[in-house]
Amino acid sequence: MANENAPVNPNRLTVEQAARLLSAAGQRPISVAMLREDLDAGAPTNADGTINLVHFAAWLVKEMGRGD
């Protein structure tokens, strides 16, 4: 098992790493399932399936502006 305290690259986060990072930084827990829903809804990923945190955040802002 990989060391969970090892530095992560915000340009190449696994879904699990992104969920942990976003949960730690935010006011509510973010689950892997929540991120997978976003990915299924069109959130961007790298070619290898990892998440670029800046691209993901930009996508979230764009989606918030849609005003569903």
Description:
The chain is mainly alpha-helical and 68 residues long. It has one domain (15-64). It is 47% helix and 0% strand. It is built from 3 helices and no strands. The protein has helices at residues 15-25, 32-40, 53-64. The protein starts with 14 loop residues before the first helix and ends with a helix. The model has no long low-confidence stretch (mean pLDDT 92).
Highlighted features:
68 residues; mainly alpha; globular
Lay out the secondary structure.
Layout: H1 15-25, H2 32-40, H3 53-64
Please give the number of β-strands.
Answer: 0
Radius of gyration: 12 Å
Distance between the termini: 40 Å
The poorly predicted ranges are: none
Q: Return the domain count.
A: 1
What is the H/E string?
Answer: HHH
Residue share in helices?
A: 40-55%
Q: What fraction of the residues are assigned to beta strands by DSSP?
A: under 5%
**Annotation field: number of helices:** 3
Q: Give the averaged pLDDT, no decimals.
A: 92
Shape field: globular
Largest sheet: none
Helix/strand-derived class? mainly alpha
